Amino acid sequence: MARYTKAKCRLCRREGEKLFLKGDRCYTDKCSYDRRPYAPGMAGRARKKLSDYAVQLREKQKVRRMYGVLEGQFRAYFQRADSMKGVTGTNLLAMLECRLDNTIYRLGFANSRDQARQLVRHGIFMLNGIRVNVPSMQVSPGDVIEVREEARKIPVITEAQEVIARRGCPEWLVADGAAFKGEVKAMPTREDIQFPINEQLIVELYSK
User: CA 173, CA 160: separation in Å to the nearest integer?
Assistant: First the structure.
């Protein structure tokens, strides 16, 4: 599968916002975006007036990169969101939040979504007692996610649990760090997603 292999900090600088792609590093003074808060490249400091289309495109790219999904996957999520009842933009964000890799990141079992994705592919987690290795799986209320017993001493997991106190666990999840377990309490609402996202711009982009 195609994946982005270059410096992740360039993505934050390109979108003009912290996307928290490198976990705990993003909260320290080592963060590249804090040191160079402008787009990469020779013309990065230049002021540019963006068209309406460019603004919509940048918002879509920001969300896509934040959750680590490819263009085809993102479009498929939008099409599903558009066919569901309710507000399309809210449905889209809820589905992205309910990805297994994002849920594990939110529970504090990984330092970043990228790290969570890698851990899932290695079969570190169990969903409702069944070993899983598909990061894009959708979780539902009542689902229980736990770290396999033989993997509970992996350093990256214990380090991530120390960071969750700073990041916080959203209300739609219940984390039990001592038991290496978490539960999906409810579907995420728009208020649960604190990152500044204007999903209406994405709806307008795909509706053209």
Answer: 16
Which amino acid is located at 204 in the chain? E
**Using CA of residue 137, residue 197, residue 173, residue 170, what is the dihedral sign?**
positive
Any long-range contacts for 94-97 (C-beta under 8 Å, 24+ apart)?
94/187, 94/188, 94/189, 95/138, 96/63, 96/67, 96/69, 97/172, 97/188, 97/192, 97/193
**In total, how many domains does the chain have?**
2
Q: What is the pLDDT along the chain (208 residues), one digit of tens a residue?
A: 455 555 655 665 666 666 665 565 555 565 655 556 656 665 556 567 778 998 899 899 989 988 989 999 999 999 999 999 999 999 999 999 999 999 999 998 988 888 899 999 999 999 999 999 999 999 999 999 999 998 888 888 877 777 666 677 899 999 888 889 999 999 999 999 888 889 999 999 998 7
CATH of the domain at 159: 3.10.290.10
Q: Does residue 62 lie in a domain region?
A: yes
The DSSP letter of residue 154 is -
Amino acid sitting at position 170: P
Domain extent at residue 136: 99-187
Say what the pTM is. 0.81
Query: H/E element holding 190?
Result: none
Which residues, in sequence order, are CB contacts of 53 under 8 Å at separation 6+? 205
Q: Fill in the DSSP letter of residue 81.
A: H
